[in-house]
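Section handout 9: paired folding examples.
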Amino acid sequence: MSEPLLRPAHREGTRVLDAEMIRRALVRIAHEILERNKDSQKLALVGIHSRGYFLAQRLAREIEGIEKHPVLVGALDITLYRDDLSMIAPHPIVRSTDIAFDLTHVDVILIDDVLFTGRTIRAALNAINDLGRPKTIQLAVLIDRGHRELPIRADYVGKNLPTRLSERVEVYLNERDGKEEVAIEPQVTATDVPL
């Protein structure tokens, strides 16, 4: 009889990455992107609203510092492409997609903060295909927490973080949240909220 798989135990509400760890992960991802994509002039970084866009801007700065030329950066809103739109909120917030360049024949690096089921990325791929036909689409994420429901994997990962389904991975970035960290927190259910 095989032994059960053991996974690292996480205390809920625990910080797993601090600001310096996030910075180092992004520097490493930037170098990995450049190793795989020899012509950095044909790169476009497209961040999924909203934290993915902030991460895309940071990665662009890292790549620009290495390559000494600007990198195309865009923001992608996938709200209307989601297959769970009716479940996420009665009136979901639709942000703007801001991609002011042609995606055709470009190597697109799609960027998000957390890769979980894969459904957000599926929606993002549909949105990108409506905007053009890139040469390639690669995926970079700060956190891969597992539990995939679709056959989607990241090409570049800041940190693989095994989680329970009962946990949430929260990414906090200075640009949006006023603090910089990644934390594992308990999933809040309706029974946890006082009446």
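Moving on to protein 2 of 2.
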Amino acid sequence: MNIERLNGLSIDALYALSDKMGLDLPVGLERVFILEALIEAFEEDSEDRKSASDAAVHIEEKKYSGSELDEIDASIDAAPCIERRYNETVVHVIARDPEWAFVFWDVRDDELEMLRLGDGFSGLFLRVIKEPSYDGKGTASFDVVVEVDDDHWYLQLPEEDRSYRVDLYARNGSRSRLLAHSPVIRTPRGLLADSFADLGSGAAELAALSGIVSLEITQMPNHHPSRILGGFDE
């Protein structure tokens, strides 16, 4: 029995597997008891098959065919899972750290087909907007060209502790069409303060005790280029 794969299933998948095996488990049961019930059911089924002497009766009475590994693998594969895509036109961005963000998007099948059939369609691109305002504008922006078959990218953002939004566009000749825009996210700070002088008295005392002041750390410049398209021009 592949216990590792069984442990990796969600609660919903475990309940679906128990229903498939004919187990009547109460709703809200703790995960450990669901796993215990499933393992016992597999072990009982294995004992039944090993003790059966008549092949015809054995085939009629067994719950599943094949080896124990085949049984649990087939049941797990049949359990519900998260869809890879939901056929929606969306774009989302998640700040990974002070410099990098993960962007993922999708375009509805019928909408993408209409774009491809239109005159002048030349692909998709992402517009990264720094400090976006309510009217959609920002203090600066840059575009990143993506392939039609792409659905996620890692982007390096030029500044920490800043707000960003990512818009998904389709390019038609010299014109652009907005398809979707992400919620606004803010990148975290790389340091608690720009310099030790900016620390409060308590934090400054802890920094002195740690010995970090003696390391003479060089502060990073306020601007550094993006590894995608050169970043924002100040």
